[in-house]
Automatic annotation (TrEMBL):
The keyword Oxidoreductase applies. It comes from the Bacteria. Belongs to the short-chain dehydrogenases/reductases (SDR) family. This is 3-oxoacyl-[acyl-carrier protein] reductase. It is an enzyme of class 1 (oxidoreductase). It comes from Variovorax guangxiensis. GO terms for molecular function: 3-oxoacyl-[acyl-carrier-protein] reductase (NADPH) activity. Pfam families: adh_short_C2. Coiled coil: none annotated. SUPFAM superfamilies: NAD(P)-binding Rossmann-fold domains (SSF51735). Keywords: Oxidoreductase. Transmembrane segments: none annotated.
Amino acid sequence: MDLGIAGKTALVCGASKGLGYGCAEALVREGVNVVIVARGAEALEAAAKKLAEAAGASGPFVKHVAADITTEAGRAAVFALGHDFDIVVTNAGGPPPGDFRNWDREAWIKAVDANMLTPIELIKATVDGMARRGYGRIVNITSSSVKSPIDILGLSNGARSGLTGFVAGVARTAVAAQGVTINNLLPGSFDTDRLKGTMAGAAQKSGQDFDTVWEARKKNIPAKRFGTPAEFGAICAFLCSMQAGYMTGQNILADGGAYPGTY
């Protein structure tokens, strides 16, 4: 299927590895120019090189900015390249797992700033330009914990739920009639460094070894496996497609069937 987005330009955050990289790669393969951003310069440069190889000599451009997108300075560095992004994929590293009794105000503010306020700032900076041009796709990578909270991820549960509520409102404003969609993409268990870190925390809490916890988590998923960044990226690319223009304000869950609810 031709997604109809070749030649568009995308900003993909947290794209040096994991789910962010999977999204950037899927977009590049659809002919989308990408600007990727992440904090780690070395990993980001390696990711940009791989994406450029995937794009080919005559394909879309790949640019990278080593910056912390959760800061004003980081966003300024990205937008120094321009504001006219057709696609924005927001993504920030999730807050650390733990016991809520141990989190002080600073921990909460940091979580909300990264996982709620930063996506809102990126939406605010780009959505009106998208509306004027008559096309825009904003995809927020959040978490399955928005639908099914995970006890050790309380910081994430709270901050990402705040973003979900905000998007539910703004996605249904006038921009919806101007060709702009805003959706959230909710990953369940994907084979990433983030999942490994969460499982390490769960193993420590339970007193079990890592492999035992890892395999038990896998067995509890109906698909009996963890997702891959590539298949996550493919879902993201579809949400950015012309064919997905009638989908907005939605929370798309990709979790191998782990969420047991009807709705």
